[in-house]
Amino acid sequence: MTIIATKALTKTYGGGVTALADLTVEVDAGVIGLVGANGAGKSTFIKIMLGLLAPSAGDVRVFGIDPVTETDKVRARVGYMPENDALPPDVSASEFVTHMGRLSGLPKTAARERASEALRHVGLYEERYRQIGGYSTGMKQRVKLAQALVHDPDLLLLDEPTNGLDPAGRDAMLTLIHRIGNEFGISVVVCSHLLGEVERICDSLIAIEGGRLLRADRIDRMTAASDVLAVEVSEGTDELAAALRAAGFAVTPEGRLLLVPLDSDSAYDRILQAVAELDLPLHRLDQRRHRVAELFTTKETADV
Amino acid sequence: MSDAGVIHDIGYQRYQGPRLGRRAVFSSLYQHGLRAAFGFGRSAKSKIFPWGVAAIALLVAVINAAVRSQTGTWLFDYYSFADSMSWLVIFFVAIVAPELVSRDLRSGVLPLYFSRPLRAFDYVSAKVAALVTAAWLLLGVPQFIMFLGGAFTTKTGMKGVWHELGLLLPGWAYSLLWALVFASISLLIASLTGKRAFAAGGIVAVFLMTTPVVGVLSVLPSDTSRHLAGLASPMSLIAGVEAWLRGRGDLGIDVGDFGVIYGIEAFCLIFACLLLLLARYRKVAAL
User: Fold this and answer.
1) Which of A102, A147, B102, B209 has a Cα-to-Cα distance from A199 of 20 to 30 A?
2) Where are its TM segments located (chain A) (predicted)?
3) How far apart, in Å, are the Cα atoms of B120 and each of A53, B242, B280?
4) What does the pLDDT look like over B10-55, one tens digit per residue?
């Protein structure tokens, strides 16, 4: 099921700053990573989906609804966790999340119930009557997540949810997001500038840079065709490279290794055959799985 | 494989119940604001000021009612009660208006509000309504006590009660005018800064600084400038509106034939403040 679809989405701020340029993307339900450097246009994209900003050109649909014209319908189904500090210090988490629930249109008792539910799910059940001002950064992030969950949305938009957390807090937050996506049945868009972090928990990935779409696909599809074979021979590395290139492989030397993409099922045998024909002493042969990060680095260097 | 003593995670439950519309959201924001104005749901410290102010107003009303029932003379009538309490109301809105809006700006909670089915208009009108109600209660409840005092000690039976009610209702309307002017001006000032102390200082300053201007204008040797002097300050403006509507020239301000200008300015002032406030939050909501 497609939950977010954009067509040539463009946002230009006053003063000629282009935040999004011609972004066309279709996203299926699940946990979606939205990655890009700072200032790549991630937050702008989220704000457009919430109907907080109107796009300068192009089209956007969330659950098939246009957030520009039917803002309320979209917002009722979406929970938003902003990047910045967004909590009043002098109320308890329970009271605050209840208040946010009521502002989302829940009746009074339902808001109270859902607030303690949401706080329980993010792991703040015991501390929920304490004032937010006394919370640690990790706990504050959880309160922000709880207020986004309180009205039971179908989609969560999380802007840098791991910001300011220590490694343990990061892991806990990522595990929680993974659970929300997989066990709660809520789709999640996770914004991050750390690719390694989101690739662990996401089903699909949208990478943007300078407001333009770099790539959008399912993670398994991104990594599937990208396995490489690392070949190391004790001598004759150059000869082997030449032979493999002649055989039609795109060989990349990396130190004493030769990285050969495994683009077909027969590739493995053909590489071995090339080594055998040259009669080179084979030192090492291992199959590597590309990490998503490498996909983008090669892509980016190719762009330059 | 369930062990005894293990707490089972009952898992996530989807919400199937009703989802209310913007009106319900507005009323919950209004209630929240009204409660916050009197420090409900906040720490004991934040209850001290609003309740201290309310206690003074109530005390004055009780003394007034007592004196009147004993001696039969007013210390204040319903109008002059509102007039003489005006400084109290100013301090009240100077503390409460920043509590209602500056606090939200400061904590950055607005993006959370405006990512929900809530518009800048809803937010602004809920906050204005909450502060107007709070300021009106501050004057209206003591006025009601004065009414009770008058109604129970009247010597002309039911007719006296009706007469007293006829005095109370315009008094209430007059208090509402005070509340509207103070609420709209103070919310506008408070919405410009996230620092509560600055906002409070700014609000008091606006009311304080404009009073001497009235004094200077009213001693100029021109009848017109004397009649129009009251326009310079919100407080004399309201007194001027009262003088105009009641057709009295003996209320400490002489508006001459310019009474209607006072009425127009009061209306425009409230309206302009609310529009500016809305414009301000249109901008905030888009961030």
Assistant:
1) A147
2) none
3) 14, 33, 9
4) 678 888 888 888 889 999 999 999 999 998 877 788 889 889 999 9
